Amino acid sequence: MFTSPFPSAHKSRLRKYAKGCQTGGDRTGKFLAPATATAMRLRNTLLSRSLFLNGMLKLGEKVSSTVALPDYPADPSRVSW
């Protein structure tokens, strides 16, 4: 059985964030790996436009910065759980 080296507070802090990111992956996967050639051409056209690409990157940055994590010690072997 796998035992996480992180305390339960860390897990609960990340649970909602991770669940939201996994749900977001359902949407982005369809865009990044389209099922048809037409959808692939549309994706490539959109990604070749800097306005669209920059918007996507800013949205990704916004999503990734929504979780606030405390600083952790550099050497986890010194931490007693």
Concise structural overview:
This protein has 81 residues and is mostly helical.
Could you describe the 3D structure shown?
- The protein has 81 residues and is mainly α.
- The longest helix has 25 residues.
- It is elongated and about 55 Å long.
Helix count? 3
Overall 3D form: elongated
Cα-atom Rg, whole angstroms? 18 Å
- Give the mean pLDDT: 79
Question: What is the tally of beta strands?
Answer: 0
Relative helix content? 55-70%
Q: Could you spell the SSE succession in H and E letters? A: HHH
Strand percentage lies at under 5%
Distance between the termini: 18 Å
Low-confidence stretches: none
* Category by helix and strand content: mainly alpha
Main sheet, how many strands, which sense, barrel?
none
Based on the model shown, name its key terms:
81 residues; mainly alpha; 3 helices; 0% strand
Itemize the secondary structure elements and their pairings.
Elements (H helix, E strand, L loop, with lengths): L7 H25 L4 H11 L2 H15 L17
